[in-house]
TrEMBL record:
It comes from the Bacteria. PANTHER family: UTP--GLUCOSE-1-PHOSPHATE URIDYLYLTRANSFERASE. It catalyses: alpha-D-glucose 1-phosphate + UTP + H(+) = UDP-alpha-D-glucose + diphosphate. InterPro entries: GalU_uridylyltTrfase_bac/arc, NTP_transferase_dom, Nucleotide-diphossugar_trans. This is UTP--glucose-1-phosphate uridylyltransferase.
């Protein structure tokens, strides 16, 4: 059976990034650098490698720099061209979207992730779509979102990308319940947000990539506030599970939570070490700290 193609991705970027203050006081969290480029550059590259054709950023006040990042910086480009700094100029130009490839909608108040996704409803329309939480930089040989889309092509419905954590950490995350653990793709039977220690149905946590069917929007429209007084995407997914299939995909790769200070540091170290031009120098610079 062929399933309707996933062409669009929603990237919610309206959160306040309080866990990485003061760095995010004036710079949007999503534009903090990991080595030599903003976090968003990594997730957009991941989505492009998965065949995404349209990006819907759900943005908010003080996040205008995100829109600017994906546009020409005419003066800078002219300067680089005049000084024949061609390599970096080409790198900048390669980041730019094709005309019309990105939309920006405003979430006027941070009512939660569920509300942010709902703000994208008119641009997504009646088709399956991806949700990408940009704090999560997922380093994988085959793009994490591509792995999710491959799973969707196989089983259809809704896909949640998950990853295992030690059992004593499950209470910090959204955790999925799966039917029977056979391989990496398993039918889900439930999910729970931050379960009390010792009560989690598995050690597989929701890790920031989703393929969802458009029926989620009707549920989000009527979704009551949940944990933290916010409209939670998890609560509407749980309701959608009554009528639609959900599968959890344990993806093959490493996740860095760049919305957290130590996660951001880990991402910087890991990406520096594997950087094609900077890797060797990064290793030399870091080694003395461990001797
Ligand atoms: P987080 O809770 O990690 O983001 O939400 P945050 O609020 O920016 O971070 P802290 O906890 O204050 O440090 C996950 C994703 O959902 C988006 C965030 O931008 C982030 O990408 N989000 C969250 C919204 O777009 N709107 C919201 O109302 C809440």
């Amino acid at each position: 059976m062929t399933h309707k193609r996933v062409r669009k991705a929603v990237i919610p970027v309206a959160g306040l990034g309080t866990r990485v203050l003061p760095g995010t006081k004036v710079v949007p969290k999503e534009l903090l650098n990991v080595v030599d480029r903003p976090i968003l550059s990594y997730v957009v590259a991941e989505a492009r490698a998965a065949g995404i054709e349209h990006f819907v950023f759900v943005t908010g006040r003080s996040k205008g720099a995100i829109e600017d990042y994906f546009d020409h910086q005419v003066e800078l480009e002219a300067q680089l061209a005049a000084k024949k700094k061609t390599a970096i100029l080409n790198e900048l130009l390669a980041e730019l979207p094709k005309a019309g490839e990105m939309s920006f909608v405003r979430q006027m108040q941070p009512h939660g992730l569920g509300h942010a996704v709902w703000c994208a409803r008119d641009i997504i329309g009646d088709e399956p779509f991806a949700v990408i939480l940009p704090d999560m930089v997922m380093d994988a040989e085959v793009s994490a979102l591509k792995q999710a889309i491959n799973a969707y092509d196989e089983v259809g419905g809704n896909i949640i990308v998950v990853e295992p954590v030690p059992h004593d950490q499950t209470h910090q995350y959204g955790v999925v319940a799966v039917e029977a653990k056979g391989g990496r793709l398993n039918k889900m039977t439930g999910m729970v947000e931050k379960p009390a220690p010792g009560t989690a149905p598995s050690n597989l946590i929701v890790s920031g990539r989703y393929i969802l069917q458009p029926e989620i929007f009707e549920l989000l429209a009527s979704q009551e506030k949940g944990a933290g007084g916010e409209i939670q995407l998890t609560d509407s997914m749980f309701r959608l599970m009554e009528t639609q299939g959900f599968h959890a995909l344990e993806y093959d790769g490493v996740t860095y939570d760049c919305g957290d200070k130590i996660g951001l540091l880990r991402a910087n170290v890991a990406m520096a070490l594997k950087h094609p031009e900077l890797g060797e120098a990064a290793r030399a610079a870091l080694t003395p700290f461990f001797q």
